[in-house]
Each structure stands twice: as C-alpha cells, then as structure tokens.
C-alpha cells in the first residue's frame, strides 16, 4: 500500500476543509486545530479581580486537550462511520481504494480480494480482510500508515487520485479498535526475495501514535502485496448502498481490476477484469491561482520554499508566467521581492484580488486521466446486462481553476427492470458515490436533462424511467464534494453543464436505438397482424373458387410475400 | 345481367389472379354517403354519383378484406343452396372465423352493405335478409304468394284479416297482386292505421292501407313500389308534420336512403306524393301542436342544406321553412282533437279532393 499518497490526502483534505469553510456551517474543531485549542487554554493572570476573569477561570477548568479518539467518536458521521452498515462499507472502501491506488502507481494490474467473515459469538461483528497484489509497504512505514491519523504532509500537491472516504484507512482501523478492542492485523511483502512482514497494530488514542503489539517475519504465497484485517462492529445488508453494490460499481468504473469477494452467507464472487490496460498514471500539477481561496493562499504563502513573492507565484502555481507574476505584484501594489510569509499576514487580501483580476491561461488539462470511452464500455458491459450501451468522454473543462473531465454512459434494455426510475451510478475519480444521491450535482444534471426528447418517460423533475442505467464520472485533480464524507458533488454550473452535454450525447444515440427498436417492434406487430388474417383470404378464395389445398397455400404464401415487400418500402 | 353467383366468382377470380401475379389485390366499392348521392328527378330516386373508394389489401385493410371475402364465400354458399341468413345470423356465422370474426353486428352489416354496393345487388339476392318487419297491409288487395312448403301459389285476400292485417314479407320480389283500389295510403304509425281499419276507410275510399311503422323498411318500400307499378295507382303518404316525418320517413319512401343509394333504384316509390300532415294543415285544421325540439330544427336545417331531394323541390323548401317559422310540429293523431272520426269524415276526404296539390 502506498504510504505516501494516503497521508498526503489526509492533509490535502484539511486544506480543502479550509477552502470550503465559506458558506458551510462550522463543523466543530478541525483535526489540526486540536493542539492550538489546547494552547489557548493557558491560565489567565491570577491577580485579576473582575467578574469576567472569574468566568474565564471557570471556563479554563473545562478546557482541555481533545483526544483523537474523542474527536473521532463524535465526528464519525463526517468520516463515513455513521452507522454499523455504513461503517462496514467505509472500511472496505478505504482499503480497496488504497489498494487500487497503490497497484496503479506501481504499474501493476490490480487484483483485490475482499472477505467479510462474521466473528464467532458476535452477531454484529465482522472481520474484514482486504488483500491486494500491490507493491507492498516497507516495514518501517506500516505502523504509521495504518495506525496514525493525519499522517504526512504534502498538501499543495494536486493529483488526480481516488478520493477516499473520511480520513483514511487509519480511521477504519481506529473504528475497529474502538468498537471491538481488537488490533488491526497487517501482512505486507515488498519483494519475492524477502519474507513477508506481519504485525498487529493499535492506535494510542491519547497521543495518536501507533503501537505495535506483535510483529514477525512470515511466509506468504503472494510475491508482493498487502493484506489488512480489521475486526469491527458492523452490519451486513444486501441491496443498494451495500458492499456488493460498491464492489460491482468499482468493477464497472475500473475495468482493469479483478475483484474477488466473499460476503457473509454467500458464495464467492469473481468480477474478472474486462481489460488488461492500466490507466495512465495521472500527472501531478500545481494549483491554478483561480482555484485557490484566501485561506489556502495564506497557508501557501507561509509554507512556501520560495523566498520572494514573484518566485512564489511562478513556482507554486501552474500557468503563472514571470510576466503574469509581475503583473499581479503591480496590481496588488506589492514588491515582487517581498517575503511571502510576511504577505501572508497583511496584504494577502490585496494579493488575492490582484490574482483574480489578472488574466491567466487555463490550467493544463492533460493531468486528468479519464476512464475513456472504450474502457467505460467494457466496464458497463461487464457490470450491466443490457441491449444498448453508449459512453461519452467530454473534452477537459475547468471550474474555478481546476481542470476536470466528465464522462457519461448509458445502458438500456436487456435484463434491466423495465419499470421505475433508472439506476444512476455516480463516480468521482473512479470511486462509486453511493450516498446522498439527491444532493449531488450529477443527479441534478440527469433530472434537468430532457429525456423525453430521447423517447424515454420522465416525471417532471425526476429521473428518467425504464430499463436504464446511467453512469456519470467526474475526473478531476480536485473533486468538489459537498462534505467531508465525499458522497455528493457540489453544484458548480460548469460541471453540471458538462454532465448535461455528455448525457445529451448519449441520449441522442439512445434515441436512435429506441427508434430502431420501435420500428422493429411495429414491423413485427404488423407482420403478426397481417399473418393472422391472410389465411382467411386463402380459405375464402378456396371456398368461392373451389381451389385445392395446394392452391390455397400458394395464395397465402404469395400474399405474405406481397405484403412483406410493400411493408419494407 | 350476370347472376349473383357469377358476380361473386368473377370478383374472387380477379383477386386470385392478382395475388398470383404478385400484385396487391383490390376491390372498388362505391362510397356510401349522402355526399355521393344525386337526385334523379325524372326517375325519382337517389342515385350514386359514382365516387368509388378502392380498397387495396394493406396492413390497415387486411382484416376487413379478409372478412369481406369470407362473407362473399358465405353468400355464395347461400345462393347455391338457395338458402337465406338474417343479418343477425350472418353475424353469428362469423363467430366460426376465429380471428376474423365480427365483434359487433354493426361491423358485419357494414361489410354486407359494402358487398351489396360492390356487386350492385341487393342483399336479398346474396341470401341475406333483414330482421326488420316489412309493414301491415289492409284493403282491397289480393296478394299471390307461394306456400313455403309446397311452392304452390296461394291467394291472400287482404280484406279477410278482420281487425288485423296482412304482413309484408321480407322478400317481396316474387309476389303478384290483384286489386281494383284507386290509390295506396302509406301511413306512418300503426295507431292511425288501426283507426282507419276500424272505420273501414279502405272500403269507403276504395284504397289499400299500409302501415310503415316509422321509416319504411326496404321490403316495405319494395312492396309499395311493385304494388303501385303493377296496379298503376298512386301512393299518398300520410305522416306526422315534423322534420323527421318529412325528411326521413317520406323522403326515404319516395327516393330511398343516402346510405344505401346503390339499391335505391329498387327500393324507392317515385309515385308517392305527400298528402299530409302539411305545415299548412296545422293552420287550416287548427291542430294542437308541440314546439319543435332542437334536434327537429337541426334536422330541418340540415335537410335544407344537404339533402338533394329537398334542394330539388322548391315546394319542400318552402314547407320546411314555414314549419321552422311556425316553430311547431303536429302528429297525425292530433286530428283526434276534433273527434275520433274527424280524420275519416273530414280530413282525408277533403285532402283527397285535391290530390294535385299534394307536396311532391
């Protein structure tokens, strides 16, 4: 498992939190605020006498450090552990998403195995085992990756990768530990030449440090890869938003992946890969100035390695040429040679406005790796049995300085249920979004598309109906989720517009297909109708003209020919 | 003229030949509607103008086409076996045709009318007879019919029915008549017919009374036509004074119907004239009236606008306009207001003195 991508995402997560702070209610102390809130609790001056001081003192008694576990317990809904059912799903998701990222980064065709085993003697307890054939994790990193929350720091990096639910796999490990007291068991091997490394980990919930309970060198049949085992309180239930659903959808959006899984009271399932083509490794880009909000800008100014403002602008952002940087400095009335950390405190607002007012090139779009039309078709064909498939990959677009690509796919007919609203499969960076469909921009784009124009039924303001699966994928270096649990896409007009265009392209193809079907059905109906009455013409002519049976048959076949010919004209 | 059987076979042969040639078979059927009807004043009946519709075998017509052919086959069988089937029976026969069967008698009646028009024959010649009763006859008339069992001629004296009456049979083509009556009085309703029978009006006026019972059936019209032509006596119609009595009952009696114009040549009575009750009679005889109903007004206006017969006769246009102007209608039996015998004692003798002034 890739230790570096994972924690880095945890950090960029925080950056995002800040960036999105405007317009959203405060979600309580943010993870990185934990130590600072403790710092503010320094005692007030002891000889102050007024009432306020007394209150402050009273308050000070109650102010203390919040432990990671406490924070986690209170905010677990933000991280995808709202209820036992979702907790099970989130745990599997974290592990599988990490496995896929690791395999792809190492250029390995992923093979992932998922097992959910009911724990003996506990109705609501399961052991979740996720195993991959990825590059493995070097021994020293294993404890930090799995048993330290918020580990890593590379938060300016913008790279398209699977988003993850909540803080990461370490949150899942912590959830397991909190609900069952059991340690997380890790098995990892980085090379066939070396033995596998096994360890049992716990998180020290007060200090947020990993504790290795046991470790050993062991034999393992995998030449390389990682195996995570977490015991947790959960609930397994089939249907929508289930583990099965997640794995099947993952297979659709990732046709290069083979997933084997065995869930409680079920036969093992193999979702074999439909394509042996690994997606290209996405390129990492620096943020585009238009997509950076003032808080983020401040943090960037503080932590940059550049020594001048001009250097900062050119080096830390994409699409800022030296001339652009000079223009920005002039517009903000700042010296190009000013120290970035100094600006972070005072002139940041002016700088922010100057950036927004300066005309810059659009961010590079080649850093996005869409699934691709062909691969998406393969995935859909594998996951959905239908009569008609169509997929569209839109050209890259930009919202608020972030490049993105929208892809849409449609499957129609076949084994799909003929009645009721269509099934909408939403994906962000190849990860299925299973919750909060109603709050998602993708849903809005689907319901705002006029499907009636393409021959489908659609209640006003609703999803189209019929034997239909609609798939929408948003690939971006920075997917704008509506909340930390990453379940719905925010309603950016640029994104909705692109989704609609993609859906319309699919819809037009579908309309052609439906037209063909309708004509074929109509022709069939007419043929049957004609064939029902033609024999009677034969009978009547035989009766009137005393024809032989052979002549009667001749009349019938001739008539069928005649009508068939005229119908085709 | 070729026989019905020959006509059926000829049409079937043409269809068969077309099919064998690989062409879509088709038949030509005259359009049956008042818009395709012309009033032939000299011959005195409605005639088809000759707008045909071609029924080609296509997806849309295949069912009717099959039904038409199967009915033709049935007609041929009836003709060959010299049998008959009522229209209702024909409908039930089709129930053996599986998918091809008629769902309503109206459907089978329409196909039957099409056949009739296509062959320029009347349905009786194809072996199909109606359910409807012909009408009642009383007066100085001997009808010569054949005993259905023995085929021997039998003479029916229409004066010998007492207070009852002779019934017009469904098929009147073979009947012969002997009479010395001076005219035929065709009466709209059975009540007035009974009144005249009871007062022995047929003997006193030396006439034949026929009750039509509303719009006269084809058999009734044919009976009156053949009788009036064989005895060479005029026909006087005595109906209610309302648009229905004039435009439906009398008009159909005299020139035939718009829907069955292909057979009107036979089923009309050009000799008929209109004795009464006329709009003028309402005033002259001070008859009690009812106001015209909206549908009466509509019917009269429609006749003035679309009916070729009314349009041909100025006298009728004036009469209908007078009626509309008066806004009332009067039934035959309104004459009873002046005494039950008023109709035989005063009204009919008065009118019969001036037959030349009857409406055309």
Main traits of this protein?
heterodimer, A: 569 residues, alpha+beta, Heat Shock Protein 90, Ribosomal Protein S5, domain 2, 4 domains, 8-stranded mixed beta sheet, 6-stranded mixed beta sheet, 17 helices, disordered N terminus, B: 360 residues, Arc Repressor Mutant, subunit A, 2 domains, 18% strand
What would you note in describing this structure?
- The complex is a heterodimer of chains A (about 575) and B (about 350).
- Chain A has helices spanning about 5-20, 35-40, 50-60, 70-75, 85-105, 140-145, 170-180, 245-255, 295-305, 310-315, 320-330, 340-345, 350-355, 375-385, 440-450, 495-545, 550-569; strands at about 110-120, 125-130, 160, 185-190, 195-205, 210-220, 225-235, 260, 270, 285, 390-395, 395-400, 400-410, 425-430, 430-435, 470-475.
- In chain A, helix 8 (about 245-255) runs antiparallel to helix 14 (about 375-385).
- The longest helix of chain A has about 55 residues, at about 495-545.
- The radius of gyration of chain A is 30 Å and the shape is globular.
- Chain A folds into 4 domains: about 75-270, Histidine kinase-like ATPase, C-terminal domain (Heat Shock Protein 90, 2-Layer Sandwich); about 290-355, Helicase, Ruva Protein, domain 3, CATH 1.10.8; about 375-515, Ribosomal Protein S5, domain 2 (2-Layer Sandwich); about 520-569, no CATH class.
- With about 575 residues, chain A is of the alpha+beta class.
- Chain A is built from 17 helices and 16 strands.
- In chain A, the strands form 3 sheets. Chain A has an 8-stranded mixed sheet.
- In chain A, about 40% of the residues lie in helices and about 20% in strands.
- Chain B has about 350 residues and is α/β, with parallel strands linked by helices.
- Chain B has 2 domains: about 5-130, Winged helix-like DNA-binding domain superfamily/Winged helix DNA-binding domain (Arc Repressor Mutant, subunit A, Orthogonal Bundle); about 135-355, Dna Topoisomerase Vi A Subunit, Chain: A, domain 2.
- In chain B, about 40% of the residues lie in helices and about 20% in strands.
- Chain B is built from 13 helices and 17 strands.
- In chain B, helix 8 links the parallel strand 14 (about 235-240) and strand 15.
- In chain B, helix 3 (about 85-95) packs across helix 4.
- The model of chain B has no long low-confidence stretch (mean pLDDT about 90).
- At the A-B interface, helix 16 and helix 17 of A face helix 1 and helix 2 of B.
């Amino acid at each position: 498992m890739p230790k570096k991508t994972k924690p880095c995402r945890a950090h960029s997560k925080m950056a995002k939190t800040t960036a999105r702070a405007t317009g959203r209610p405060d979600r309580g102390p943010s993870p990185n605020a934990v130590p600072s809130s403790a710092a503010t609790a320094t005692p007030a001056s002891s000889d102050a006498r007024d009432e306020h001081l007394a209150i402050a003192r009273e308050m000070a008694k109650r102010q203390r450090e919040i432990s990671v576990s406490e924070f986690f317990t209170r905010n677990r809904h933000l991280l995808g552990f709202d209820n036992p059912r979702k907790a099970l799903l989130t745990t599997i998701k974290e592990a599988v998403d990490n496995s896929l990222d690791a395999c792809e980064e190492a250029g390995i065709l992923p093979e992932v195995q998922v097992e959910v085993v009911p724990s003996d003697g506990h109705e609501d307890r399961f052991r979740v085992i996720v195993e991959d054939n990825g590059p493995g994790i070097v021994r020293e990193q294993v404890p930090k990756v799995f048993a330290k929350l918020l580990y890593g720091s590379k938060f300016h990096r913008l790279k398209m990768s699977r988003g993850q639910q909540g803080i990461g796999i370490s949150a899942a490990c912590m959830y397991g530990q909190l609900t069952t007291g059991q340690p997380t068991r890790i098995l990892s091997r980085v090379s066939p030449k070396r033995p596998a490394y096994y360890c049992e980990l716990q998180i020290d919930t007060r200090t947020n440090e990993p504790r290795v309970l046991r470790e050993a060198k062991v034999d393992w049949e995998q030449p390389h890869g990682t195996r995570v085992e977490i015991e947790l309180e959960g609930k397994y239930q089939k249907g929508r938003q289930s583990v099965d659903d997640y794995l099947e959808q993952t297979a659709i959006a990732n046709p290069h992946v083979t997933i084997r899984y065995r869930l409680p009271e079920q036969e093992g399932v193999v979702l074999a890969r439909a394509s042996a083509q690994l997606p290209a490794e996405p390129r990492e880009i620096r943020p585009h100035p238009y997509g950076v909000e003032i808080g983020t800008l401040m943090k960037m100014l503080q932590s940059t390695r550049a020594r001048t403002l001009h250097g900062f602008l050119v080096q830390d952002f994409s699409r800022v040429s030296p001339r652009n940087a000079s223009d920005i400095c002039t517009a903000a009335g700042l010296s190009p040679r000013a120290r970035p950390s100094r600006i972070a405190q005072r002139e940041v607002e002016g700088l922010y406005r100057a950036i927004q007012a300066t005309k810059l090139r659009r961010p590079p779009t080649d850093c996005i790796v869409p699934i691709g039309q062909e691969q998406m078709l393969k995935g859909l064909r594998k996951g959905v049995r239908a009569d008609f498939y169509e997929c569209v990959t839109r050209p890259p677009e930009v919202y608020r300085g972030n490049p993105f690509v929208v892809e849409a796919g449609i499957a129609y007919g076949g084994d799909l249920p003929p009645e009721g609203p269509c099934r909408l499969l939403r994906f962000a960076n190849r990860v299925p979004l299973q919750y909060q469909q109603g709050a998602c921009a993708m849903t809005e784009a689907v319901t705002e598309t006029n499907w009636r124009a393409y021959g489908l039924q659609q209640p006003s303001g609703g999803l189209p109906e019929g034997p239909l699966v609609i798939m929408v994928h948003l690939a971006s270096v920075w997917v704008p989720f509506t909340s930390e649990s990453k379940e719905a896409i925010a309603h950016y007009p640029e994104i909705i517009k692109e989704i609609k265009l993609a859906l319309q392209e699919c819809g037009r193809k579908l309309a052609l297909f439906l037209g063909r079907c309708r004509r074929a059905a109509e022709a069939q109906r007419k043929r049957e109708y004609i064939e029902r009455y033609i024999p009677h013409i034969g009978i009547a002519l035989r009766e009137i003209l005393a024809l032989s049976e052979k002549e009667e048959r001749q009349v019938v076949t001739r008539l069928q020919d005649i009508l068939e010919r005229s119908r085709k004209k | 003229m070729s026989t019905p059987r020959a006509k059926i076979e000829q049409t079937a042969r043409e269809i068969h030949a077309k099919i064998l040639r690989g062409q879509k078979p088709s038949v030509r059927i005259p359009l049956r509607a008042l818009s395709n009807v012309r009033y032939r004043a000299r011959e005195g009946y409605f005639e088809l103008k000759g707008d045909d519709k071609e029924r080609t075998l296509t997806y849309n017509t295949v069912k009717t086409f099959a039904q038409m052919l199967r009915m033709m086959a049935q007609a041929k069988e009836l003709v060959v076996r010299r049998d008959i089937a009522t229209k209702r029976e024909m409908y039930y026969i089709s129930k053996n045709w599986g998918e091809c069967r008629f769902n309503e008698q109206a459907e089978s009646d329409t196909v039957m009318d099409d056949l009739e028009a296509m062959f320029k024959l009347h349905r009786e010649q194809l072996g199909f007879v109606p359910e409807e009763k012909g009408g009642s006859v009383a007066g100085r008339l001997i009808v010569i019919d054949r005993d259905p069992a023995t085929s021997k001629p039998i003479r029916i004296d229409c004066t010998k029915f007492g207070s009852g009456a002779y019934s017009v049979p469904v098929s009147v083509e073979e009947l012969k008549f002997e009479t010395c009556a001076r005219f035929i009085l065709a009466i709209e309703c059975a009540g007035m017919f009974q009144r005249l029978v009871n007062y022995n009006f047929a003997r006193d006026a030396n006439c034949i009374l026929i009750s039509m019972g509303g719009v006269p059936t084809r058999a009734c019209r044919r009976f009156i036509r053949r009788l009036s032509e064989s005895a060479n006596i005029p026909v006087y119609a005595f109906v209610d004074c309302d648009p229905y009595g004039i435009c439906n009952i009398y008009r159909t009696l005299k020139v035939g119907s718009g829907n069955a114009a292909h057979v009107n040549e036979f089923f009309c009575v050009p000799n008929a004239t209109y004795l009464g009750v006329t709009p003028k009679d309402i005033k002259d005889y001070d008859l009690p009236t009812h106001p015209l109903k909206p549908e009466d007004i509509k019917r009269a206006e429609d006749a003035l606008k679309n009916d070729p017969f009314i349009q041909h006769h100025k006298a009728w246009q004036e009469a209908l306009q007078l009626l509309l102007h008066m806004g009332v209608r009067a039934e035959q039996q309104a004459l009873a207001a002046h005494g039950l015998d008023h109709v035989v004692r005063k009204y009919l003798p008065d009118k019969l003195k001036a037959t030349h002034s009857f409406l055309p």
